[in-house]
Amino acid sequence: MNPLLPASAASVFFDGIFADPCLAHPEGVAIHADGTVWAGTERGDIVRIAADGSGIERMASTGGFLLGIAFDAAGNCFACDIKHKAVFRYDATTGACDRFADSGITVPNYAVVDDTGGFLYVSDSLDPDGSVFRYDLATGRGGRWTTEPLCFANGMAMAPDRSGLYVVESMKARLSFVPIGADGSAGAARVVTEGLETVPDGVLVMANGDILISNYEPSRIWRWSERAGLELLIEDPVATTLAHPTNIALKGDKLYTANLGRWHLSVIDLTNLPD
Fold first, then answer.
1. In this predicted model, what pLDDT tens digit does every residue of 21-69 receive, in sequence order?
2. Three-class SS of residue 117?
3. How far apart are CA 100 and CA 76, in angstroms?
4. pTM, two decimal places
5. CB distance 100 to 139 below 8 Å
6. CA distances from 3 to 30, 134, 222, 233 (A)
7. Cα dihedral 247, 169, 147, 163 sign
8. Sheet bearing 10-15, strands edge to edge
């Protein structure tokens, strides 16, 4: 399968190997409303990188190992910490970073904020009995939301109409969709696409409804759409610029990827992406 974009469309956005703080094997990445790019590291740091990639600063630290991060409408940052088996919240007003939710979850991996519904959805990456947890966005109270197993539930994205969650099942190399019922309960999962060889990780929905899925191994990004099915967007056979990409975030026509295999964030220029 030929990729839609050449490898040259990807470049290093910020190299943090010698930065202070070090951008130590980032997995989570998210775009702040002010255009800055935030990431989480294996040292538990929540870091903010200038919009032009010119600098980095530590906003907070959990002292653990961070995976996915996500913002709510107020700019608070939610960070999944696998060492502490909890989700932490960085308060945008006070700068405090405190344990927010931990009821029952084992491997908190990826967070999705639903400001409209008032919930925080968090994937629990167990194999084979992975799941999605749901917590009240105001109080942090909640628990397991899905009832059927999702094999190593990983990256997630809310459908634009809030009808459900797209969930990557890493150990099944597939993307599934979990409907949200009228009463807020989780419906039966259905497979959207398979063949995401070998280990898919992150996912997002573009404004036109296309879905982008990042692959930890091999280092590549997929695109799935109703009109064309599954297409290879871009790949890096030597895993240097795209170095085991995990979570992805979109800002305009630029796709940012965290790279768990190295110490940098990458950016992919989507300007010439064919329809």
1. 999 999 999 999 999 999 999 999 999 999 999 999 999 999 999 999 9
2. coil
3. 12
4. 0.98
5. no
6. 25, 36, 9, 5
7. positive
8. 10-15, 264-269, 254-259, 245-251
